[in-house]
Specification:
By secondary structure, this protein is mainly alpha-helical. It has a domain of about 55 residues. About 55% of the residues lie in helices and about 0% in strands. It is built from three helices and no strands. The chain starts with a helix and ends in a 15-residue tail after the last helix.
Length: about 80
């Protein structure tokens, strides 16, 4: 996970803990990010793009999976090389 991914996850964690959030929902391409950023700036709230947080979470999970030792066809763990 790179620094930007960690920042997105941390921002989302902090926002959820503060319980101060506005959710902007809608179909793809309708301007949710644009409106969300403007709204956050005007209300002086942090802006977190859920797409960024989801991507960061998936990247972290993928990296964690890469660090696990491989399993054999019988399901037994194999020693790391």
């Amino acid at each position: 996970m790179n620094q930007q991914d960690g920042d997105a996850v941390s921002d989302l964690d902090n926002l959820l803990a503060s319980r101060e959030m506005i959710l902007v929902a809608g179909s793809g391409g309708v301007g949710k990010t644009t409106i969300g950023k403007r709204l956050a700036r005007r209300l002086q709230l942090p802006f977190v793009d859920a797409d960024d947080a989801i991507d960061a979470s998936e990247a972290a999970a993928k990296n964690a999976k890469k660090k696990q030792p491989p399993a054999s066809s019988t399901g037994d763990l194999q020693p790391a090389e």
